[in-house]
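Minutes, structural biology subgroup

Action item carried over from last meeting: produce the structure token record for Cytochrome P450 71A1 (Zingiber officinale). EB confirmed the sequence was re-checked against the source entry. Recorded below for completeness.
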Amino acid sequence: MSVILSAATFLPPFSPSWILAALLFISAFFFLRRPPKRKIRIPSPPTLPLIGNLHQLGPLAHRSMRTLSAKHGPVMLLYFGPIPTVVVSSPAAAEDVMKTNDHAFSSRPDTSLADRLFYGARDIALSKYGEYWRRVRRICVVHLLSPKRVHSFRFVRAEEASRLVSTVRCACAASSPVNVTELISAFTCDVLCRVLFGKKGEGGGRAELSLHTHVVEAVGGSFPMRDFSPWLAWLDWLSGLDAKVKKASSDFDAFVEKILKSEHESDRIIFSDDHDARRTDMVDVLLSLRNDSSDSLSRESIKAVILDMFTAGTDTTNTTIDWAMAELIRHPKTMAKAQEEIRQIVGWKEEVGEETVQGMPYLKAVIKETLRLHPPAPILFPRESMEDARVLGYHVPKGTRMVVNAWAIGRDPASWEEAEEFRPERFLNSKSFDFKGLDFEFIPFGSGRRGCPGIDFAIVTTGLALATLLYHFDWELPEGVKEEEMDMTESPGFSLKRKSNLILVSKPMNH
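Output recorded by EB:
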């Protein structure tokens, strides 16, 4: 008993502060010894050896991905062969990728198609993030696609819109149906030929360049097996893909070289911002910058940028106008409302001016609704993480590929009422969505550092062409074809085109 009492005299008093300090010490000890929190695995469907989830992607990959995401969530891990690829399909997940972690996901993965078609990925869209990409983008934003430069080419768009009207009038006089798909393709190709090369119509090599571009688009929408597993590269040879890629690359290179040598370098123009756009095209601008140490580009880089701008420029306008006209034909009341606005604002003028189009809110809503349902690139260009990041709480390691399903996001029922319906009024009665990628429910041109730099050019060209067609003509389906019977099937490929051509009957408006 005495021993116990003597020991007790050396124990500290059990005051509340002492007890609290002891508890804090014990808690800290066990916390520090606790193993790190386990990283939450991204949901993923079962895979097959060698091919991963490739067998689950049908010809329309954006639809297949949405179906898989409905089961596995808005952040989903797929394996393209052995390559891990995260697919995001919700506005919140897209915001994490293109805003919260924009820098982390600003690079592009290596692909054999980018190397072989775009001169070693020297273009804007596919080059890796770094000093070269920043320089190329700066050149495009400052010298080629600035608001001032876009406005300077208004005469090109106006003249080609006038030619568009003349072509349709000829069809009306002959009582012939109009192939709207081919008509718009010719219009956009002519506009881009003149803006890029300074050559009109057929003289600018429209047919030749259009053919090259279609081949590049078709090949670009394929899945080379060498990108998923090098030892499967022989399948690309066996399928004929290697031969198609080689021919597409050599044909386009020969075409551009001919233009550079015979029509630009032989008669160089020193470019300045005040130079008359009627005598200066974008190739002149690019060649003039070769002596600028800060903004100079190699010859191969110039050709890569030309191909990039032509394919992106024609695709955006072609597909948007074609889908818009198809949707308007299927919704006669909507078309009548759009035409009423256009004709009331334009009045009895012979031409529709670009400045006038800016004051047409319903037409803008039609274009936005078309882009929501039918974005030109349903799956945005893949990104690659340059560092570890988190998307909706999921850990994404460095080097992971990231894919944003813009088509699924535009049809997300959590963001849009009657998401599958064509209702332009939604853009009049709700918050003001823009095209710049600031609203992640609506990202047809992407967002962040890797967003499309040609938005202004694409939208002004689309608006002018669509307003011109709706102002001058009334449109209907050929006799015997009903709206509900229209073929709205999507065509496989990188861009979201309609599978069949849009054939309509036009009637000129009486002035």
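Discussion: The chain has one domain: 38-508.
Next step: EB to file the record with the rest of the batch.
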